Amino acid sequence: MRAGRFLVPLGIVNKTHEPTTFNGVERSLFDTNVIPTTWWSDGAGVFGDLGESAKYEVYLGSSLDGSAFDPIEGIRGGRQEERPGMSEPALMGRVDWYPSGAGSDLRLGASIFAGGLDNGNEGQNPGVDGDIQVYCGDAQYSLGRWDFRAAYALEEIGGAADLGAGVASEIDGYTVEAARHILPDAWKTGRLERADLVTFLRYDAIDTQKDMPSGVARDPAGERDEITFGFSFFPTTALVIKTDYQIRDDEADGLPERFNLGIGWSF
Fold this sequence. Notes:
- The chain is mainly β.
- The chain has one domain (2-265): Porin (Beta Barrel).
- It contains one helix and twelve strands; from the N terminus they run βαβββββββββββ.
- A twelve-stranded antiparallel β-sheet has the order 1-2-3-4-5-6-7-8-9-10-11-12.
- β10 (223-236) and β11 (239-250) form a beta hairpin.
- The protein is globular and about 60 Å long.
- The mean pLDDT is 95.
């Protein structure tokens, strides 16, 4: 059993969001605006194994504040901080399947989040009438020096017309990534014994204006895609130096390309 504050079990990055666990300086477009990492909840639930090849998590916890949803940024602003209200809580959970048994190189996951939207910090609810369901599927696979990952999510927002001007009734997006470990084994000696060098390519496409309430015009800036490629150098497993370049685009032609350089660690 688990009780208290926990990470909402959607997607890949939200549950393992430390900078040493994902490629790229910035979290992906998908993991920023569709699954708004870092996303947490207060509540209680159970988790465990379903035989030798599957794991599960199920929780009842705090949901989102629908009054803070945004036409372009999606549900990100709806995360409750400090002492989240639970007047309309959420049921959430996920199942992970390892076809070749626990610890295998292939993992397939499915997760869901469903809750009300009239919630506010310390019980100061905004008085909105709405609900949300999030359906997500993700996969990870390793083959030799290659790592692959992908995720897709669909969000259905009930009562979107009453949540704010331009809030969509449907949001979706996906991310796909291929990465290769390129540091020669012969170099992994001495101070570089646990070092690694990873090059990667990632593609994200999201639409925070996928389907609109009746009579509400769609904002073209909500449909975006992003190509990110770069390197992650690990002097040791808990420290990473990253660099990448991002080619970004939206239907409104308002996103410039971007170069990123960063350092991260976990402890």
